[in-house]
């Protein structure tokens, strides 16, 4: 048994796991992350109606979920808590900024509240950072020292790894690729990337296009309250031309930003995450457009691939990051 493993065994001889949590757009995902980098007891907790409306109610639900999970442990102890969020964390204050599809938490010191209540070290990270950590540990980026993980969901963000280390920037705000402005020719304007390629904005663009193309399979949703990003993906897989075109165009918008990042950093890989069923469509579209925007030498250095881990990636990554922080503290 290694020295590192010994330090993760409690006095009763039980393995000390880390609790990984992902604040998703509709549910809280969580599970225990073991010393062998496995997620055990993975589950989803739907948000209460109050938690979707109030930051304080959201924090209160999260505290109840954490307490119940800790209380349920019998064969292992929880040594820390890692949380992945669809937004940014200001490192100097550890405050959360600009959550997507969730109530504002910027006025609540979530980090301090959880540490004080549970007496455990807490780590809060952007969800793309967490997924990047998981991908470099067990996924498509294993053994790759220079890559970008791109998350496409309610928020659009990136986890950048250089020389095998996640890069946070001066204030922990690196990776805000969704806030980059790109010039869109048919609009003759610069637009924030997230306004085009987040899940909600893909739906918005598709609805506008559907007004001119009633032949799409998506038309059947018009009387049932509308369609979702997942519906667009399903229709694309079933051969719907409009749905496939909208995902392809999303890939083109992404490529405008990604090509510049690859040229600047000479990355080895771009790993595209988000909805599993959309990844391969996006990879193909991004790869085609990137190849038209870059020099051959840089282009051939960088592989564009689908992230290989599924919905547990951010739970795993948040737990791994929390464990790394605990190890650094001794």
State the main characteristics.
five-stranded mixed beta sheet; globular; alpha/beta; 330 residues; Nucleotidyltransferase, domain 5
Structure description:
With 330 residues, the chain is of the alpha/beta class. The protein has 2 domains: 3-133 and 312-328, Nucleotidyltransferase, domain 5 (2-Layer Sandwich); 143-306, Nucleotidyltransferase, domain 5. The chain is built from 11 helices and 14 strands. The chain has helices at residues 3-6, 55-72, 110-118, 127-138, 194-197, 199-210, 229-237, 241-265, 279-293, 296-301, 313-328, and strands at residues 16-23, 27-33, 39-46, 77-85, 88-90, 95-97, 122-126, 147-152, 156-162, 165-166, 181-184, 189-192, 269-272, 303-306. Strands 3-2-1-4-7 form a 5-stranded mixed β-sheet, sandwiched between helices. Strands 10-9-8-13-14 form a 5-stranded mixed β-sheet, sandwiched between helices. Strands 5-6 form a two-stranded antiparallel sheet. Helix 4 crosses helix 11, helix 6 crosses helix 8 (241-265) and helix 8 packs across helix 9 (279-293). The longest helix is centred in the C-terminal third of the chain and has 25 residues, at 241-265. The radius of gyration is 20 Å and the shape is globular. The relative contact order is 0.15.
